[in-house]
Amino acid sequence: MSYEPKDFSRLLGTPGFSDQLLNNHFTLYQGYVKNTNILLEKLDVLLKSDQTATPEYAELSRRLGWEFNGMRLHEYYFENMSREGGKLSDSNGLTKRIVEEFGSYELWEKDFKAVGAMRGIGWVVMYDDPQGCLFNMWVNEHDVGHLAGCTPLLVMDVFEHAFMIDYGLKRADYISAFFNALDWSVVQKRFETRR
């Protein structure tokens, strides 16, 4: 099995995101895809040569989660953005669920942005727990902090590479630009097909 990097060049020209920042970010993402494939190949060779009880196999297996989640989280992130952005409709199931969970869309947005503004590097993910709540969660590293069994609906990258070229230390300005580029139709589709 081999993964191919997706083409997100449709995002070039997105207001609030320079093409330099986006192209750098795309290159970083492509590195995660490449490294995921390399690790899968090496693990396959070790498996077929009966070397699964080796330190190399163990370390490569551990590293796979970092590279794979780096690939996949970037795909979610770029997929839930567009040059035009978009509003969340007042008359869909996701809006209803957000209001039920948080009291209003505005409170949900305040919470999501507050999580994104926290010190540190990582991701902000709105998860849907099929057995309960919606959560806005901080994911510290690609492979640490995910909620087991929950579906990522909305993903925002808050590693420095996502904003420093354009915004320096002004993370709040980046978060505002991200919300302007947010394609809610993609998030709504993830919500509708999550189970």
From TrEMBL:
Entry's family note: Belongs to the iron/manganese superoxide dismutase family.
SUPFAM superfamilies named in the record: Fe,Mn superoxide dismutase (SOD), C-terminal domain, Fe,Mn superoxide dismutase (SOD), N-terminal domain
UniProt enzyme class: oxidoreductase
InterPro entries named in the record: Fe/Mn_Superoxide_Dismutase (IPR050265), Mn/Fe_SOD (IPR001189), Mn/Fe_SOD_C (IPR019832), Mn/Fe_SOD_N_sf (IPR036324), SOD_C_sf (IPR036314)
Domain Manganese/iron superoxide dismutase C-terminal: 92-190
Keyword tags: Metal-binding, Oxidoreductase
Ligand binding (Mn(2+)): 25, 74, 157, 161
Single GO MF annotation: metal ion binding
Protein name as annotated: superoxide dismutase
Its EC number(s): 1.15.1.1
Entry-linked PANTHER family: SUPEROXIDE DISMUTASE 2 (PTHR11404), SUPEROXIDE DISMUTASE [MN], MITOCHONDRIAL (PTHR11404:SF6)
Lineage: superkingdom: Bacteria
